[in-house]
Amino acid sequence: MKQTRSSTLQLLRLPFSFFLMPVYWFALSQVVDKDWGRALLIFVILHGLVYPASNGYNSYMDRDSTPIGGLEHPPQPTRTLFRVTLIMDLAALALGCFIGLYFVAGLAVYILASRAYSYRGIRLKKYPIIGWLTVISCQGALIFFLVYQGSHKAGIWADTLDVAPAMLAASLLLGGFYPLTQIYQHEADRQDGVRTLSLVLGYRGSFIFTGLIYGVAFFVLAYYFLSTLQIREFQVLATCMLPVIVYFLIWAVKVWRDPAAANFNNTMRMNILASICTNAGFIAVLVMG
User: Fold this and answer.
1) Where are the alpha helices (DSSP H) in the chain?
2) What's the rounded Cα separation, in Å, for the pair 89 and 253?
3) For the segment 9-33, what is each residue's pLDDT rounded down to a tens digit?
4) What is the pLDDT of residues 102-161, one digit of tens each?
5) What is the domain count for the chain?
6) b/e sequence 111-138, b meaning 16+ C-beta within 10 Å
7) ∠ Cα 72 172 42 (to 5°)
8) Most exposed: 58, 178, 215, 283, by fewest CB within 10 Å?
9) Whole-prediction pTM value?
């Protein structure tokens, strides 16, 4: 029983929520009239329930024996893990009722999409483009929308068109980075019959793709921040992102010379650095607002 609880907790990968946190801070930073109580509840729902449940369900379906995001030696999942993820999803939907029905509907879309992504009977992750689009649209634009709308003062429905470029930028930032999170899993994915975008692109192609999408993402970010007269905020955000760009270029050169450099340890270093810098950047924007 103790071993089952330990493996379940590990496979929920609670610290992994930190990697998805920048979208929350970005969206919250753009809310003018914030309801901090609702914002806190949304944070708990997403990072304490929805994201870990999605991680756990993915592990339950994949039954990984090789490294996965945040775990170098993942334990084998049990039926308890499946039940816990279901309870967490139901709890998230119940708590979402305190935000609004639109929020619950959005959460339901996210949960169903994450299940379809992993479920063996559908397995959207098998398809490189569809899987990629599912991830970036849900973890990017959809989450941004839910945080942005849900964190406004009760009774206020904000104009989403005003932040449409920001929603696009959130998706692009995730979309550019996502292939690099899969780059060390090529052999495991191939054996599992999964054709991720990173596997299709290859080692060098994944870095080229990331560079291109990140370039577009920063162009959209620049347009949005400058058009909303958040010039200082954009300068601070861009400064915070500089270490990520430097590490990305150094790592790309290493992989170009030796594909073995596209390993779990280097990927985790990239994940951690990118998350720290991006979270710091958007939190700074929030504080400056």
Assistant:
1) 2-12, 17-29, 36-44, 51-62, 79-96, 101-118, 128-136, 143-150, 164-181, 186-191, 197-227, 231-257, 264-288
2) 41
3) 888 888 889 999 999 999 999 998 8
4) 999 999 999 999 999 988 889 888 899 999 999 999 999 999 999 999 998 865 666 778
5) 1
6) bebbbbbbbeeebbbbbbeebbebbbbb
7) 75
8) 215
9) 0.94
